[in-house]
């Protein structure tokens, strides 16, 4: 799976250049989170992937959603295929730029955030900072979740959710705090007076997280 992406290269690239992967939500595209670029650290390589599937209305999706089906809201095989595709493309980008001794960070919104949880908790050795916004951890995507606290200790999570989110309920988002607490992961969980989106305070806190 070759994913289309936008890239912002730093002025100086070397084997230790940090890589940030941006994963958009359902019905959006690679330009959405790429708008964060002007306020992200200038020495990072930033890559924003476009999901592989056309969504029902416009934009793209990582997997189909059936809101009427409470038992199987998401198409698990499609989601797993997307997860494998993202990993494959991250490795390709690392090889292309000669990133052999760098940190890789994740930032996902909604669908992209759900995938970010799965990517980080199944492959903690590959990632460092992980931002999951307006989403929740989907257990069906994390059958191989790592539970060894030693392997998870390098991960740093930033989780944000709108108190008025009508797409993914706040209660679902809060499940992440319980899960990460049980795994002894380092995380901050923040709630904002907003709907299914990122308000200005959320954005500023996210940028602070990445710059620390």
UniProtKB/TrEMBL annotation:
<dbReference type="InterPro" id="IPR050565">
    <property type="entry name" value="LYPA1-2/EST-like"/>
</dbReference>
<comment type="similarity">
    <text>Belongs to the AB hydrolase superfamily. AB hydrolase 2 family.</text>
</comment>
<protein>
    <submittedName>
        <fullName>Alpha/beta hydrolase</fullName>
    </submittedName>
</protein>
<dbReference type="GO" id="GO:0016787">
    <property type="term" value="F:hydrolase activity"/>
</dbReference>
<keyword id="KW-0378">Hydrolase</keyword>
<feature type="domain" description="Phospholipase/carboxylesterase/thioesterase">
    <location>
        <begin position="15"/>
        <end position="211"/>
    </location>
</feature>
<dbReference type="Pfam" id="PF02230">
    <property type="entry name" value="Abhydrolase_2"/>
</dbReference>
<dbReference type="InterPro" id="IPR003140">
    <property type="entry name" value="PLipase/COase/thioEstase"/>
</dbReference>
<dbReference type="InterPro" id="IPR029058">
    <property type="entry name" value="AB_hydrolase_fold"/>
</dbReference>
């Amino acid at each position: 799976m070759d994913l289309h992406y936008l890239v912002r290269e730093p002025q100086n690239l070397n084997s230790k250049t940090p890589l940030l992967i941006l994963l958009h939500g359902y019905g959006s595209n690679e330009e959405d989170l790429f708008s964060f670029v002007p306020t992200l650290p200038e020495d990072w390589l930033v890559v924003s992937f476009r999901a592989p599937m056309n969504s029902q209305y416009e934009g793209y999706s990582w997997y189909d959603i059936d809101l009427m089906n409470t038992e199987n809201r998401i198409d698990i095989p499609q989601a797993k295929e997307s997860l494998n595709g993202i990993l494959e493309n991250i490795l390709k980008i690392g090889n292309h730029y000669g990133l052999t001794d760098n940190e890789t960070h994740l930032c996902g919104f909604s669908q992209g955030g759900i995938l970010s949880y799965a990517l980080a908790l199944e492959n903690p050795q590959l990632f460092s900072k992980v931002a999951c916004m307006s989403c929740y951890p989907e257990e069906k995507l994390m059958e191989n979740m790592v539970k060894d606290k030693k392997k998870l200790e390098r991960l740093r999570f930033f989780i944000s959710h709108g108190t008025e989110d009508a797409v993914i309920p706040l209660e679902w988002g809060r499940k992440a705090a319980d899960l990460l607490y049980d795994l002894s992961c380092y995380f901050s969980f923040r709630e904002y007076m907003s709907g299914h989106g990122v308000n200005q305070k959320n954005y500023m806190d996210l940028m602070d997280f990445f710059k620390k």
